[in-house]
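Recall the central idea of this unit: under ordinary conditions, the amino acid sequence of a chain determines the structure it adopts. In this exercise we apply that idea directly, starting from the sequence alone.
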Amino acid sequence: MNTKENNAVGKVIFSKCIRCHGVNAERKALSKSEIIAGKSVTYLEEALAGYKAGTRNVAGMGIVMNGQIAPLSDDEIKAVAAYISTL
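Accordingly, the structure predicted from this sequence is:
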């Protein structure tokens, strides 16, 4: 997948996240989580992988985030992390 396709996939996946994180990832989800806008791709990939594995639980959001991330493939996690890092 090229960068443009990867960005498009990431944007589609992130559309499900807007309700809690904001259009530009500028909000604390449910007033609990950290703001994810501006985080590095590596940080975001590791965080999302941790939520998927059930080993990350920042501000008690582990179960909620696991439900959101569990269906995503590793490539989809990379795509959404790359997209978020551009916000």
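The mean pLDDT is 94.
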